[in-house]
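Form 7-S
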Amino acid sequence: MEESRTDKEISFFRPRGTAMRGEVRVIWLVLAGWFVAIVGTQAFVYLLEVNYSELLLNEMTFFNLPIHFWLTGQLLPLWFIILCVLFNIWMDRHAARRLDGALRFRIRSGREED
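Output:
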């Protein structure tokens, strides 16, 4: 009995198995965190500009950089790096946990018997 082509395909939008569903769920959370950071910082800068004068926005500095430049040019790449590190830590633990159940036998080499 042949499996249909759709049964063999792996898709990000149609994850298979509990492990892949968990990985896709975490990827969606990382992307949502990235999206919220981008929109949130731009909304924050816009609200600062609307509520205060533009001159005040240029005068507010952080590490000698205007706050709007620092938020967009420094914080967002830093946030991306933090999200990647967190994802990799989670992925390492997730993969190690999956391997614990999969390693049920040990392959012996010929040298150990001698």
